[in-house]
Amino acid sequence: MHPFTYTRVSDTGEAVNAGHRGGRYIAGGTTLVDLMRETVEHPESLVDISGLPLREVTVTERGGLRIGALVTMAEAAAHPKVRTLYPVISEALELSASAQLRNMATVGGNIMQRTRCTYFRDVTAACNKREPGSGCAALHGFNRSHAILGTSESCVATHPSDAAVAFAALEAQVHLLGPGGGRRIPFADFLLRPGNTPDREQALRRGELITAVEIPALPRPLKSGYLKVRDRQSYEFALTSAAVALHLRGGLIREAKVAVGGVGTVPWKLPAVEQHLLGERPSESLWEAAAAKATAGTRPLEHNRFKVELLRRTVERQLRIVGGTK
Protein backbone atom coordinates (compact mmCIF):
# COMPACT_ATOMS: atom_id res chain seq x y z
CA MET A 1 0.00 0.00 0.00
CA HIS A 2 1.32 3.43 -0.95
CA PRO A 3 1.74 6.15 1.71
CA PHE A 4 -1.16 8.58 2.15
CA THR A 5 -2.34 11.35 4.44
CA TYR A 6 -5.57 11.00 6.42
CA THR A 7 -7.98 13.76 7.43
CA ARG A 8 -11.25 13.39 9.33
CA VAL A 9 -13.79 16.14 8.66
CA SER A 10 -16.77 17.22 10.72
CA ASP A 11 -18.89 19.24 8.27
CA THR A 12 -19.71 19.15 4.56
CA GLY A 13 -17.99 22.44 3.77
CA GLU A 14 -14.73 21.16 5.22
CA ALA A 15 -15.15 17.92 3.29
CA VAL A 16 -15.71 19.68 -0.04
CA ASN A 17 -12.68 21.90 0.49
CA ALA A 18 -10.51 18.88 1.22
CA GLY A 19 -11.91 17.05 -1.78
CA HIS A 20 -11.28 20.04 -4.02
CA ARG A 21 -7.63 19.92 -2.97
CA GLY A 22 -7.42 16.37 -4.30
CA GLY A 23 -8.49 14.26 -1.33
CA ARG A 24 -10.44 11.04 -1.88
CA TYR A 25 -13.58 10.59 0.19
CA ILE A 26 -13.84 7.48 2.35
CA ALA A 27 -16.60 6.27 4.69
CA GLY A 28 -17.08 2.51 5.04
CA GLY A 29 -14.03 1.95 2.85
CA THR A 30 -15.13 -1.53 1.79
CA THR A 31 -14.06 -0.97 -1.84
CA LEU A 32 -11.38 1.70 -1.71
CA VAL A 33 -9.30 0.05 1.01
CA ASP A 34 -9.29 -3.21 -0.96
CA LEU A 35 -8.11 -1.43 -4.09
CA MET A 36 -5.41 0.42 -2.14
CA ARG A 37 -4.19 -2.82 -0.64
CA GLU A 38 -3.98 -4.36 -4.12
CA THR A 39 -2.16 -1.19 -5.39
CA VAL A 40 -4.88 -0.61 -7.98
CA GLU A 41 -5.64 2.70 -6.28
CA HIS A 42 -3.01 4.83 -4.58
CA PRO A 43 -4.55 8.14 -3.45
CA GLU A 44 -2.21 10.60 -1.81
CA SER A 45 -4.88 11.86 0.58
CA LEU A 46 -7.97 10.30 2.21
CA VAL A 47 -10.81 12.42 3.60
CA ASP A 48 -12.87 10.54 6.18
CA ILE A 49 -16.48 11.70 5.84
CA SER A 50 -18.03 9.09 8.14
CA GLY A 51 -18.87 11.76 10.75
CA LEU A 52 -20.94 13.95 8.43
CA PRO A 53 -24.70 14.35 9.07
CA LEU A 54 -25.81 12.40 5.99
CA ARG A 55 -27.44 9.43 7.69
CA GLU A 56 -31.16 10.11 7.41
CA VAL A 57 -33.89 8.43 5.39
CA THR A 58 -36.77 10.84 4.84
CA VAL A 59 -39.98 11.01 2.83
CA THR A 60 -39.99 14.04 0.53
CA GLU A 61 -42.83 16.55 0.30
CA ARG A 62 -44.06 14.92 -2.92
CA GLY A 63 -44.00 11.43 -1.43
CA GLY A 64 -40.67 10.20 -2.73
CA LEU A 65 -37.78 9.00 -0.61
CA ARG A 66 -34.42 10.57 0.14
CA ILE A 67 -31.61 8.32 1.41
CA GLY A 68 -28.57 10.02 2.90
CA ALA A 69 -25.26 9.04 1.34
CA LEU A 70 -23.86 7.73 4.64
CA VAL A 71 -26.80 5.51 5.49
CA THR A 72 -25.34 2.02 5.55
CA MET A 73 -26.66 -0.61 3.19
CA ALA A 74 -28.01 -2.57 6.15
CA GLU A 75 -29.79 0.48 7.59
CA ALA A 76 -31.36 1.39 4.24
CA ALA A 77 -32.50 -2.17 3.55
CA ALA A 78 -34.15 -2.46 6.97
CA HIS A 79 -35.75 1.01 7.06
CA PRO A 80 -39.57 0.72 7.24
CA LYS A 81 -40.14 3.39 4.58
CA VAL A 82 -37.73 1.76 2.13
CA ARG A 83 -39.27 -1.67 2.68
CA THR A 84 -42.82 -0.34 2.36
CA LEU A 85 -42.48 2.13 -0.50
CA TYR A 86 -39.71 0.56 -2.58
CA PRO A 87 -39.05 -3.09 -1.67
CA VAL A 88 -36.95 -3.40 -4.83
CA ILE A 89 -34.28 -1.30 -3.08
CA SER A 90 -34.34 -3.39 0.09
CA GLU A 91 -34.08 -6.60 -1.89
CA ALA A 92 -31.22 -5.29 -4.04
CA LEU A 93 -29.29 -4.17 -0.97
CA GLU A 94 -29.83 -7.43 0.91
CA LEU A 95 -28.62 -9.43 -2.09
CA SER A 96 -25.55 -7.24 -2.55
CA ALA A 97 -23.03 -8.51 -0.02
CA SER A 98 -22.42 -10.29 3.25
CA ALA A 99 -24.04 -8.95 6.43
CA GLN A 100 -20.66 -7.72 7.66
CA LEU A 101 -20.10 -5.62 4.52
CA ARG A 102 -23.66 -4.29 4.53
CA ASN A 103 -23.11 -3.06 8.08
CA MET A 104 -20.09 -1.02 6.97
CA ALA A 105 -20.70 0.00 3.36
CA THR A 106 -22.75 3.13 2.65
CA VAL A 107 -25.33 3.85 -0.03
CA GLY A 108 -23.14 6.58 -1.51
CA GLY A 109 -20.11 4.32 -1.54
CA ASN A 110 -22.08 1.46 -3.07
CA ILE A 111 -22.94 3.39 -6.23
CA MET A 112 -19.35 4.64 -6.43
CA GLN A 113 -17.78 1.18 -6.26
CA ARG A 114 -15.53 0.14 -9.10
CA THR A 115 -15.75 -2.93 -11.30
CA ARG A 116 -14.83 -6.43 -10.15
CA CYS A 117 -13.20 -7.19 -13.53
CA THR A 118 -10.21 -9.40 -12.76
CA TYR A 119 -8.06 -7.57 -15.31
CA PHE A 120 -8.80 -4.24 -13.63
CA ARG A 121 -7.65 -5.66 -10.31
CA ASP A 122 -4.56 -7.36 -11.78
CA VAL A 123 -1.98 -4.57 -12.05
CA THR A 124 0.06 -6.66 -14.50
CA ALA A 125 -2.82 -6.82 -17.02
CA ALA A 126 -3.76 -4.23 -19.64
CA CYS A 127 -6.72 -2.14 -18.46
CA ASN A 128 -7.82 1.19 -19.88
CA LYS A 129 -9.94 1.83 -16.80
CA ARG A 130 -6.92 1.57 -14.53
CA GLU A 131 -4.28 2.87 -16.96
CA PRO A 132 -5.75 4.79 -19.93
CA GLY A 133 -4.28 3.75 -23.26
CA SER A 134 -2.92 0.42 -22.06
CA GLY A 135 -5.62 -1.68 -23.76
CA CYS A 136 -8.37 -4.04 -22.56
CA ALA A 137 -7.22 -7.55 -21.77
CA ALA A 138 -10.81 -8.72 -21.32
CA LEU A 139 -11.69 -8.22 -24.98
CA HIS A 140 -9.71 -11.29 -26.01
CA GLY A 141 -9.22 -12.86 -22.59
CA PHE A 142 -11.60 -14.81 -20.40
CA ASN A 143 -14.71 -12.60 -20.45
CA ARG A 144 -17.51 -14.79 -19.08
CA SER A 145 -18.57 -12.24 -16.44
CA HIS A 146 -18.25 -9.17 -18.64
CA ALA A 147 -20.80 -6.85 -20.23
CA ILE A 148 -22.90 -7.34 -23.35
CA LEU A 149 -24.52 -3.87 -23.26
CA GLY A 150 -22.89 -0.44 -23.34
CA THR A 151 -19.45 -1.77 -24.20
CA SER A 152 -16.75 -0.15 -26.30
CA GLU A 153 -13.41 -1.14 -27.79
CA SER A 154 -11.85 0.39 -24.68
CA CYS A 155 -13.78 -1.45 -21.95
CA VAL A 156 -16.25 -4.29 -21.43
CA ALA A 157 -16.34 -4.34 -17.61
CA THR A 158 -19.69 -4.57 -15.82
CA HIS A 159 -20.81 -2.23 -13.06
CA PRO A 160 -21.08 -4.34 -9.88
CA SER A 161 -23.71 -2.53 -7.79
CA ASP A 162 -27.10 -4.18 -7.25
CA ALA A 163 -28.57 -1.12 -5.56
CA ALA A 164 -27.62 0.98 -8.58
CA VAL A 165 -29.85 -1.21 -10.76
CA ALA A 166 -32.83 -0.48 -8.50
CA PHE A 167 -32.01 3.25 -8.49
CA ALA A 168 -31.74 3.25 -12.29
CA ALA A 169 -35.08 1.48 -12.67
CA LEU A 170 -36.81 3.95 -10.33
CA GLU A 171 -35.20 6.95 -12.10
CA ALA A 172 -33.56 8.26 -8.96
CA GLN A 173 -31.54 11.44 -8.68
CA VAL A 174 -28.15 11.88 -7.05
CA HIS A 175 -27.68 14.94 -4.81
CA LEU A 176 -24.20 16.43 -4.97
CA LEU A 177 -22.38 19.18 -3.09
CA GLY A 178 -19.27 20.79 -4.51
CA PRO A 179 -17.23 24.00 -4.49
CA GLY A 180 -19.88 25.61 -6.70
CA GLY A 181 -22.76 24.60 -4.44
CA GLY A 182 -25.35 21.85 -4.65
CA ARG A 183 -26.85 20.19 -7.69
CA ARG A 184 -28.79 17.06 -8.51
CA ILE A 185 -28.25 14.78 -11.48
CA PRO A 186 -30.45 12.00 -12.89
CA PHE A 187 -29.10 8.59 -11.98
CA ALA A 188 -29.04 7.68 -15.66
CA ASP A 189 -26.48 10.45 -16.21
CA PHE A 190 -24.46 9.86 -13.05
CA LEU A 191 -22.76 6.60 -14.05
CA LEU A 192 -20.95 6.95 -17.38
CA ARG A 193 -20.58 4.42 -20.17
CA PRO A 194 -16.92 3.77 -20.99
CA GLY A 195 -16.72 5.05 -24.56
CA ASN A 196 -13.14 6.19 -25.11
CA THR A 197 -12.67 7.29 -21.49
CA PRO A 198 -13.40 4.23 -19.31
CA ASP A 199 -11.31 5.70 -16.48
CA ARG A 200 -14.00 8.38 -16.00
CA GLU A 201 -16.84 6.47 -14.34
CA GLN A 202 -19.08 9.12 -12.74
CA ALA A 203 -20.24 12.57 -13.77
CA LEU A 204 -18.62 14.16 -10.72
CA ARG A 205 -16.83 17.48 -10.74
CA ARG A 206 -13.65 17.99 -8.75
CA GLY A 207 -14.37 17.99 -5.04
CA GLU A 208 -18.04 17.02 -5.35
CA LEU A 209 -19.51 14.93 -2.57
CA ILE A 210 -22.59 12.69 -2.81
CA THR A 211 -25.03 13.79 -0.12
CA ALA A 212 -28.12 11.69 -0.94
CA VAL A 213 -29.97 9.55 -3.43
CA GLU A 214 -33.59 10.58 -4.01
CA ILE A 215 -36.27 8.33 -5.46
CA PRO A 216 -39.20 10.21 -6.98
CA ALA A 217 -42.79 9.66 -5.96
CA LEU A 218 -44.42 7.02 -8.13
CA PRO A 219 -48.12 6.12 -8.45
CA ARG A 220 -49.59 3.86 -5.77
CA PRO A 221 -50.00 1.01 -5.31
CA LEU A 222 -46.55 0.14 -6.63
CA LYS A 223 -45.33 -3.45 -6.72
CA SER A 224 -41.59 -3.92 -7.07
CA GLY A 225 -38.82 -6.44 -6.61
CA TYR A 226 -35.27 -7.42 -7.48
CA LEU A 227 -34.06 -10.72 -8.94
CA LYS A 228 -30.37 -11.64 -8.98
CA VAL A 229 -29.01 -14.62 -10.93
CA ARG A 230 -25.51 -15.74 -9.96
CA ASP A 231 -23.23 -18.76 -10.01
CA ARG A 232 -23.72 -19.41 -6.31
CA GLN A 233 -26.30 -18.25 -3.82
CA SER A 234 -23.90 -16.85 -1.23
CA TYR A 235 -22.14 -13.49 -1.74
CA GLU A 236 -21.56 -13.45 -5.50
CA PHE A 237 -21.87 -10.74 -8.13
CA ALA A 238 -24.69 -10.97 -10.67
CA LEU A 239 -24.49 -12.74 -13.99
CA THR A 240 -27.80 -11.03 -14.68
CA SER A 241 -30.28 -9.17 -12.52
CA ALA A 242 -33.57 -7.34 -12.96
CA ALA A 243 -35.26 -4.55 -11.01
CA VAL A 244 -38.96 -4.19 -11.83
CA ALA A 245 -41.62 -1.80 -10.53
CA LEU A 246 -45.21 -1.88 -11.80
CA HIS A 247 -48.29 0.20 -11.06
CA LEU A 248 -51.57 -1.52 -11.97
CA ARG A 249 -54.95 0.20 -11.95
CA GLY A 250 -58.19 -1.17 -13.34
CA GLY A 251 -56.40 -4.38 -14.28
CA LEU A 252 -53.97 -2.58 -16.61
CA ILE A 253 -50.32 -1.62 -16.27
CA ARG A 254 -50.21 2.17 -15.94
CA GLU A 255 -46.53 2.57 -15.00
CA ALA A 256 -43.55 0.28 -15.67
CA LYS A 257 -39.93 0.70 -14.55
CA VAL A 258 -37.38 -1.93 -15.57
CA ALA A 259 -33.58 -2.03 -15.41
CA VAL A 260 -31.04 -4.83 -15.48
CA GLY A 261 -27.59 -5.45 -14.05
CA GLY A 262 -24.72 -7.86 -14.52
CA VAL A 263 -24.89 -7.34 -18.27
CA GLY A 264 -24.07 -3.65 -18.77
CA THR A 265 -21.12 -1.35 -18.25
CA VAL A 266 -23.65 0.66 -16.24
CA PRO A 267 -27.07 -0.36 -14.83
CA TRP A 268 -29.14 -0.73 -17.96
CA LYS A 269 -32.61 0.78 -18.28
CA LEU A 270 -35.00 -1.00 -20.68
CA PRO A 271 -37.38 1.63 -22.11
CA ALA A 272 -38.55 -0.68 -24.93
CA VAL A 273 -39.65 -3.26 -22.36
CA GLU A 274 -41.38 -0.57 -20.29
CA GLN A 275 -43.21 0.83 -23.30
CA HIS A 276 -44.41 -2.60 -24.37
CA LEU A 277 -46.02 -3.13 -20.96
CA LEU A 278 -47.94 0.16 -20.69
CA GLY A 279 -51.69 -0.10 -21.03
CA GLU A 280 -51.60 -3.89 -21.18
CA ARG A 281 -53.21 -6.50 -18.98
CA PRO A 282 -50.80 -8.86 -17.14
CA SER A 283 -50.44 -12.22 -18.86
CA GLU A 284 -47.86 -14.88 -19.59
CA SER A 285 -47.75 -13.82 -23.24
CA LEU A 286 -47.19 -10.18 -22.28
CA TRP A 287 -44.22 -11.00 -20.04
CA GLU A 288 -42.70 -13.15 -22.77
CA ALA A 289 -43.15 -10.54 -25.49
CA ALA A 290 -41.85 -7.69 -23.33
CA ALA A 291 -38.81 -9.66 -22.16
CA ALA A 292 -37.88 -10.42 -25.77
CA LYS A 293 -37.13 -6.73 -26.19
CA ALA A 294 -34.59 -6.77 -23.36
CA THR A 295 -31.79 -8.16 -25.52
CA ALA A 296 -31.84 -5.48 -28.24
CA GLY A 297 -28.37 -4.08 -28.85
CA THR A 298 -26.47 -6.80 -27.00
CA ARG A 299 -22.87 -7.41 -28.08
CA PRO A 300 -21.74 -10.68 -26.53
CA LEU A 301 -18.11 -11.73 -26.32
CA GLU A 302 -16.55 -15.16 -26.79
CA HIS A 303 -17.34 -16.51 -23.32
CA ASN A 304 -20.50 -14.63 -22.31
CA ARG A 305 -22.90 -15.36 -25.17
CA PHE A 306 -25.07 -17.26 -22.70
CA LYS A 307 -25.92 -13.93 -21.06
CA VAL A 308 -28.18 -12.92 -23.95
CA GLU A 309 -30.67 -15.71 -23.30
CA LEU A 310 -30.14 -15.52 -19.54
CA LEU A 311 -30.99 -11.81 -19.65
CA ARG A 312 -34.25 -12.47 -21.48
CA ARG A 313 -35.23 -15.21 -19.04
CA THR A 314 -34.31 -13.10 -16.01
CA VAL A 315 -36.48 -10.18 -17.14
CA GLU A 316 -39.41 -12.47 -18.01
CA ARG A 317 -39.21 -14.24 -14.67
CA GLN A 318 -39.12 -11.02 -12.67
CA LEU A 319 -41.99 -9.48 -14.62
CA ARG A 320 -44.01 -12.56 -13.76
CA ILE A 321 -43.01 -12.44 -10.08
CA VAL A 322 -43.87 -8.75 -9.67
CA GLY A 323 -46.83 -8.52 -12.05
CA GLY A 324 -48.42 -11.94 -11.72
CA THR A 325 -51.07 -12.96 -14.25
CA LYS A 326 -54.78 -12.45 -14.52
From TrEMBL:
Keywords, sorted A to Z: Oxidoreductase
Oxidoreductase as UniProt keyword: yes
Keyword Oxidoreductase in record: yes
InterPro entries linked: CO_DH_flav_C, CO_DH_flav_C_dom_sf, Diverse_Substr_Oxidored, FAD-bd_PCMH, FAD-bd_PCMH-like_sf, FAD-bd_PCMH_sub1, FAD-bd_PCMH_sub2, Mopterin_DH_FAD-bd
Organism: Streptomyces lacrimifluminis
Name assigned to this protein: Carbon-monoxide dehydrogenase medium subunit
Span of domain FAD-binding PCMH-type: 1-220
GO molecular function: FAD binding; oxidoreductase activity
Family matches, as Pfam families: CO_deh_flav_C, FAD_binding_5
